[in-house]
Amino acid sequence: MKNKNTNKKTEIIDSHVIDNSSKRMTTNDGVPIHDNNNTLKAGERGPSLLEDFIYQDKLAHFDRERIPERVVHARGSGAHGIFEATADISKYTKAQFLEKGTKTPVFVRFSTVAGFKGSTDLARDVRGFSVKFYTEQGNYDLVGNNIPVFFIQDAMNFPDVVHAVKPEPNNEMPQAASAHDTFWDFISLMPEAAHMSLWIMSDRAIPRSLRMMEGFGVHTFKLINEKGKATFVKFHWKPRLGVHQVAWQEAQKISGYDADFHRRDLWEAIDKGNYPQWDLGVQLIPEEDEMKFSFDILDPTKLIPEELVPVKLIGTMTLNRNPENFFAETEQVAFDPGRLVPGIDFSNDPLLQGRMFSYADTQNYRLGGPNFHELPINRPVEGKFNNQKDGIGRQDILKGKVSYFPNSLGGGCPYHALLKGEKGFESHNEKIDAKKIRGRSPSFADHFTQARLFYHSQTTPEQKHIISAFSFELSKVNDIDVRRRELAVLYQVEPELAIAVGKNLGLEPSKTLDELTLQFARANHPNYPIKAPKPEIMTSAALSMATKPGQGTIATRKIAFLVADGVSKSSIDKLRIPLQKEGAEVVLVSTKVGMLSFMEGGQEEIQHTYLTDASVCFDAFYTPAGDSIHLLAQEPDYIQFINEAFRHCKAIAFAKQAEDLLRLTLISAKNIDNGIVLESDGEIKDRFITIMKGHRIWERENERKVAV
Ligand code: HDD
C-alpha cells in the first residue's frame, strides 16, 4: 500500500524522495549513461581504462555504502506516526506538544540491544523504544526501553555492561545473546543489576510483537509548568493490543524460520492498515515527595510501583506509515535523550546525566559529522536558525554574510528569545549547593527489594519461565565460579528461585554473596550490605504480563487454518468470518502455493505452505473439515504444526470431521484440555476466541518439569 498518511514531518521526507520510474539513468552529476553493463576497455579483450568515470562514479559510491552501525541497538525497525495529546496537564507542564488536542508527528524506532545490525529479532534482550516527537518547538526524543529499569546506576559503567553482553572479544561469539561467561561474570559482580536481570530473564525479553510491548522512559524526568514549578515524572507507553510474549523455545525456532519476524510483523501490520497504538502514561510525583519512598526515585534500577503512583494516560500514539527507505530513515534517525523542549527537564539520575554526552557524540561519529540534524529524518518541522555553519555534508545554504551573534548587519538575527521578551528553553532553576564527589548515594544501596517485588508479582507460569531462562543462560556459562556467584545473587532475591535454578545446574546456592561481589559492592557503599528499608508493597499486579489490562483482544493475532486441496470452504468460513470480525488475521497454510481447490468447487490463492511457514509463527490453529484431511494425515509437517502448537500451549481447534487426525499427534485423551477445541463438543467459535484471549493454555506447562 502506498504511504497515504501525511503530516508536517512526512511532507519534509516526501520532498526528498527520489522516484526513478520512467527516468533515464545518469551519473551522480546527472550525465546520461549510455551503457551500464560494460566497463570501458582498450579493445574487446584489453584492460579497463582509468578514464571510465562512469564506472568510478558507481564503484566509489558503492565502496562507501556502509556506515558504522550503532554501538548498541544496532538492529532496529522504524515507523512514522502521530501523537495526540488527550488530557489537560497544563498544571504540570508548559510543553506545547502535551497540550490537549495537539497532534505531533513522530518517528519511532524499536531495537534489540546486543546483536549486530543483521541479527535475529528474537534474541532474549531488552527492546529499545525510541520516540522522536517533531514538535512545533523542536524535536523531543523519549529514548526508552520495554523494561522500566536499567542494569546499572551510573553511566560510568555503561561501556562495561555493553562489553560484557556483546560477543566476547577473542572469538566474537555469541551473537545477540547474553548466555555467555562475560555477561554473567559482570552481572554477578554488580548486585545493582539484579532487578533488571530478572526482567531480562522474564518473558518481557521475548515479545510476541513490537506492537505488543510496553515502553518506559526508565529515568525520572521533570515536567516544568509556566511558573517554572517542577513535577517529577515517569513515562509509560501502554500498547492497545496487550502485552504478549513468545516462548523461549519458539523464539529460537522463529530465529531460524524468520529472523525478521518482528520487523516483518510491524511492517505488514502498518501496510495492511492495522495501525498499532500506544497510550502515553505519566506517573507524577510532586517535588516535595522526592524522598517519600523506600527507594530513591533518581536510581534507574528502581521503578515506582503503579499501586503507589497510578499511571495517568495523557495521549495516544498511532503508527500509520512505513518508511519509504530503511537506510535514509530508520538507519539515519538520530535519537538523543540529552536534548529537550520547553516544559520538560532532566532529573539528577546519574545514568541519565551520563547519556547527555553519549548520544550526540555517537551521532557525530556514526553519521559522519555535525550536520546530521539536516538529514530529512532528523530535521525539525519548524526549521533551525542559528549561526552554526559549514562542516561535512552541510546542506542548508546560509544566506548573507552574517554568521555570528550579536550582530547589527543581520538585523540582530537570528535573535534569541530573551531579547524580544519571548520564551525559549529555560533550564529548571534547581538550587544545587554541593561538594564534588565521585561516588554514590547511600540511598542507592538496596539492590534486591525490587527484584523480589518483581519475582513475587509474577504468576506461576511466569516464574517458571524465569527459572528456565536463568537455567538456560547459566548452563551456557562455562565458568563454574560465575554460575555459583550468580546463584548467590539470586538467593538474595528469593531463595526458592536460586534453589530451583541451582537444581538445573547441579549446584546448591550459597546463602551469602560471594566475596568478590561484596568487594565491588563495598567500593560504592562502604557499609554494604545495608539493612533494606521496608518496602511499601510486596507484590504489584502491573508487573505481571499475565494480568495486564488490554489483554482481552485477539485483534491482528495470526491464526493458521491448516488445509489441503479438497478442504471444505463452508467449514473454513464458519470460523474465518467470526475471527476476522474480531480483527484476527486468518492465514491458510497448505501443501503448496498456487490455487487451493475447495470440496464444494471453486478456488482460492495460497501464499503459505507447510514448507515455508512454521507452527511457531502463529498464535492459534484450526483444521477445517473436507477431503483435505486424508492429505493432511500423510503430511508430517502438518502433524508437526499441531504438536508444536500443543507444546507451546496454544489454542487448537478441529472441525468434527478432522478430529480423527488427533490420533496422529501427541494430543491424547489423557492430555486433552480446554485449549483443544472440538466441534463435536458444540459450536467452536466462542470457545476458541475466549481461549485465544487468554493467550496460552498455561495449565499444559504444569505437566512438564521445564517450562516452554
Ligand atoms: Fe542508550 C542507543 C535506550 C542508557 C548510550 N539507547 C540507545 C537506543 C535506545 C537506548 C532505545 C537506540 C536509539 C535508536 O533507536 O537509535 N539507553 C537507553 C536506555 C538507557 C540507556 C533506556 C537507560 C535507561 N545509553 C545509555 C547510557 C549510555 C547510552 C547510560 C551511555 C552513557 N545508547 C547510547 C549510545 C547509543 C544508544 C551509545 C547507541 C546508538 C545511539 O546511541 O544512537 O549513545
TrEMBL record:
Q: By its UniProt entry, which InterPro entries does this protein fall under?
A: Catalase, Catalase_AS, Catalase_clade2, Catalase_clade2_helical, Catalase_core, Catalase_haem_BS, Catalase_immune_responsive, Catalase_large_C
Q: Where is there biased composition of kind Basic and acidic residues?
A: 8-17
> Which Gene3D superfamilies does this one have?
1.20.1370.20, 3.40.50.880, Catalase core domain (2.40.180.10)
GO biological-process terms attached to the record:
hydrogen peroxide catabolic process; response to oxidative stress
Keyword annotations for this protein? Heme, Hydrogen peroxide, Iron, Metal-binding, Oxidoreductase, Peroxidase
The record's EC number reads 1.11.1.6
| Positions of heme binding | R70, R109, F158, R355, Y359, R366
| Bias type Polar residues, positions | 18-40
Q: Disordered: where is this region?
A: 1-43
The UniProt entry, under SMART domains, shows: Catalase (SM01060)
Give me the Gene Ontology terms describing cellular component: cytosol
Q: What's a single GO MF annotation on this record?
A: heme binding
CDD domains in the cross-refs: GATase1_catalase
Task performed by this protein? Decomposes hydrogen peroxide into water and oxygen; serves to protect cells from the toxic effects of hydrogen peroxide.
- Tell me which PANTHER family the record gives: CATALASE, CATALASE-B
What is this protein identified as? Catalase
